Amino acid sequence: DIDQANKELQIVAGSLSEELDNTRLQHETFQAMANCSADDLLKVGVIDHPWAHNKALVALDYQ
Q: How many CA atoms lie within 13 A of 2 on its CB side?
């Protein structure tokens, strides 16, 4: 049934669009974090994130 197929396609398209928004948001978050100093990351508490932790350790090595 074509109507049913269209409904299912709309649902898939909707979830793909949502996924894209989430990915874009994550990318922007990581870009913002990349511009932060280790101290900023510690203050914000992002330091729990392994990626941020490694970045902070590297940044501290260079200080």
A: 0
More confident residue, 52 or 22: 22
Q: Are 46 and 52 a contacting pair, CB within 8 Å?
A: yes
Burial class (CB in 10 A: 0-12, 13-18, 19+), 40: middle
Distance CA 52, CA 44 (A): 11
pTM over cut 0.85: no
Residue 35 and residue 37: Cα distance in Å, rounded?
7
Q: What angle in degrees, to the nearest 10, is found between the helix axes of 50-62 and 2-34?
A: 20
